[in-house]
Every structure is written in C-alpha cells, then in structure tokens.
Amino acid sequence: MAKIVSLLKWFYYFLMPGGLLVLASVALLRPRALPEWTLPLVGAYCYIIFGLGVLIGWYLERSRIIFGVVVLLLADWAMLQVGTGEVAAGGPGRMLFNSVAFLLPVNLLVVSLNTERGLSLLREVFQLGLLLLQTALVAWLYLSNPAEVAGTLESRIFDPRYSAWTPVPQPGLLSFGVALTFLTFRAIVFRNPLEKRNAIEIGFVWALVAAFIALHGGLRGWAPTNYFATAALILMIAVFEASHKSTYYDAVTGLRGRLYLDSTLNTLSGSYAIAMVDIDQFKNVNLSYGYPVGNQVLRMVAAKVSEVSGGGEAFRYEEEAFAVIFKGKSATETLPHLETLRKAVENSHFALRGRSRPVVKPETTPEGTSPKKEVSVTVSIGVAERDEKNAKPDLVLKAAQKALFRAKQAGRNQIKHLITKTTP
Predict the structure, then answer these.
(1) Environment class of residue 381 by beta-carbon count within 10 Å: exposed (0-12), middle (13-18) or buried (19+)?
(2) 93-125 pLDDT, tens per residue?
(3) Backbone angles phi, psi at 125, to 5 degrees
C-alpha cells in the first residue's frame, strides 16, 4: 500500500502544475473555446508572459529561464513567418518549419543543462550570440532553400505511417523524442535534496511538450504563440517554486529550514510540545572524516527525524540540531515517539562511502575488499510543552533547548523533558 501511495505522489509531483497547464492551454486556447470578450486578454497573454519571463529570470538570476524564454521567443518568431499552406506544401516555409522543429528541442535541452551560477555578462553574451547565430543560419536557409539541407530535414528514419499524424518531420520527431526522454530521466533520477522533485527540470519537460503542441497550431487553426507562451509560463512557475524551496528548505537535508520554523511558530496556539534533537559529537565526525561524510550523517539523521511518529513536524534548526513540533500533545505524550526516534538513529550504523564504492550494491562482496568502516551516530533530545510559564512558542523552544542541554550533560543519547510545575 505504501508503494502505491508513493507512486501516486510521484505522478502528482510530476504532473503538477506543468501537465495541468498544458491540458488547460489545449482546452482553452483553441479557436472559439473562450467567449469573445476574453480575446483581447488572450491576445495580450503572450506579450505579458514573455516579458515577465525574461524579467523574473533576470531578477532571480536564473539564466536557464531567461534563455529558455528567448529560445521560445525565437521559435515563435520563426513560426509567424510560416503560413499554413507552406507547411503542408513545402518550399521555404516548410524549410523554416523543419529547422525550428529540429533545433527547438535541442536548444531547450542545452539550456536546461546550464548550471545556475548567477548571471555573468560574458557568459550570457556568449550564449545569446550562439542563439543569434542559429537564427541567422535558419534565416539563410529560409531565403536560399538549399536542396541538400531540405532533403536532410525531411529524411525518413522509420516507417512514414508512424509519423503521418504530425506535420513535424521525422528528424524533428527524433530530436523531440531524445530531448523529452533525457529531460524526463534527469528530472526523475537527479533530484534536488530540497524537494521531492526537481521543479525546474520537470518544468522543462512540460515546456517541451507545450512547444511541440505549438508546432501543430498552423494546421489545426491554433495560434502557436499562445502555446509557446504557455511553455514560458510553465518555466516561470517552476522557477518560483524552486526559489521558494531554496528559501524555506534546507539545502543539505531537504527538511524545512529556520524561516519555515519561525513562520510555523507564529501560528501555534493551544497545546503543543517542541522537541530539540541534536547529533552527539557531530563536530568530531566532521574533524575525523571530513565535511562530505558529515553531510551524509546529517541527511541520514534528517531522514529519521522526518519520519518521527506522533504527528511531529520536522525542521532543521541549525548545524546539527533539528526541531520537531507536536501539535495538540504534551511533552509526556511525545516521549514514546521520541524514544522510537532515538533508538532508530542509534541502531542505524552509518557505513562510510569509499571512493571505489559501486553505484549499484553487488550481490556478493568481492574477495580482498576490506570491511566497511562504520560510524555510530546517536542523538540527544530535549522536549518542552506550552504551559503557564512558557506561554509563547519562543519560550517553549528555549525550554526545549534547556532540556536538550540537560540531556547532553547527563551523558548524551537520551531524552530529557522540561515541565514547569504550576503553583496551586
């Protein structure tokens, strides 16, 4: 059952919101789908989205979004030069269409692979120059229409019956297929620890789908510009989601961070308890094995803390410390759940990753290999509840820190809870 729920969550994370936007664009942006009074808004839709996409990418220093939008803009400009009859009949218009169909997915794939290192004038000018060089080349093909290139762009790679449903030529279909497969694989496998999915990578997947639909607009009476704009909108939403994650989630563990904790504390009311979980002797781990191993330990403990029972909400507080909020529970009621957490960490011996460790675990251990080095990790926990003395969340948090300090002083790897006695 758990695997089914996990699979359904994966589909949800992958489909939302990009898949929904693509479906909405197909349903609403086709001719006569919307009432006439909305047509001026639809006409302004593309200009607003393209403009905002570049500005937001520039403001958030996301070069992938800037150049993703620029690629879509150039493809849209090229499509505006092509008439419906030219796509079907051939000639220079068909040449231009085929060039866009082949180059568009390649460029979106290349842009998605860029690393986000902030904006650099020299690097951005170089990338823009490459795009403009491609544009000049496509314009030259459109004007000269060389027969050799035209034949290459119309090459038959597989049985024509399988591509009769689309005006996109087979080289273009191959380009889209390779790009879509690679982007989907990358979005699934190389996930960011901040999130359960890679928002921007999945955004590029659905932007590519919207761009593919745009290429079918001429023959079906759709405005390709609207679908290119939808692709840009998907990228914009993806970068907002990624920015939100980077602001409110911890980059190492993927848990909600200090800002998220502060905002949650401000909403607390009624009865609740707060636990502070701290990794014992964590500085010694960093000194003995290095910071990469320390980060692995952090992620392992964070995974255990995030699975705490009793409805606890986990946050990374600072360095090796985590906070867990139990709404509607007293400190005493949280003790069984925290004890289960403490034992889970204690019993999880952490095996160090060797440099030659294979990606896939072998069925048998090769002869001559030395036994794996293991690091024993334990945690100390302090917990406090809201009461008359500690009536505010920040005071309860400080009380939990005091209880944690007592657990450390008492020998570590244990739980201490702080309950204020009320006067009769």
Answers:
(1) buried
(2) 788 888 899 999 999 999 988 876 666 667 778
(3) -65, -40
Instruction: Note the Cα 216 to chain centre separation in Å.
Output: 29
The three-state secondary structure class of 103 is: helix
Q: What count of other Cβ atoms lies within 10 Å of the Cβ of residue 298?
A: 24
Q: For residue 137, what are the contacts with CB-CB under 8 A and spacing of at least 6?
A: none
Q: Whose structure tokens read 């939990």?
A: 400
Compute CA distances 351 → 280, 282, 371, whole Å: 17, 16, 10
Nearest to 167 by CA among 177, 157, 154, 180: 154
Report whether 334 contacts 383 (CB < 8 A). Answer: yes
Amino acid occupying residue 396: V
Q: Name the pTM for this structure.
A: 0.71
For residue 80, the SS3 value is helix
What the block records as the tokens of 49 is 């989205």
Q: State the DSSP string of 316-354.
A: EEETTEEEEEEET--HHHHHHHHHHHHHHHHT-PEEPPP
Cα Rg of the chain, angstroms: 28
Q: Report which residue type is found at 262.
A: D
Write the pLDDT tens digit of every residue in 126-183.
Answer: 777 888 888 888 887 777 777 677 777 888 888 888 888 888 889 999 999 999 999 9
Dihedral of alpha carbons 129, 135, 140, 143, sign: negative
Report which of 7, 64, 70, 74 is spatially closest to residue 238, judged by C-alpha positions: 64
- Domains of the chain (ranges plus CATH)? 10-247 (no CATH), 258-352+374-418 (3.30.70.270)
| Strand ranges, E, within 92-134 | none
The one-letter amino acid code at 368 reads G
* In contact, 354 and 372? CB cutoff 8 Å: yes
How many helices and strands in the chain, by DSSP H and E? 17, 7
- CA separation for the pair 291, 48 (Å, rounded): 46
Name residues whose C-beta falls within 8 Å of residue 420's C-beta, 6 or more positions apart in sequence: 387, 388, 389, 390, 399
Closest CA to 96 of 51, 175, 16, 154: 154
What is the C-alpha separation between 407 and 276, in angstroms, rounded?
Answer: 11
Amino acid of residue 290: G
Closest CA to 281 of 216, 360, 376: 376
d(CA 133, CA 131): 5
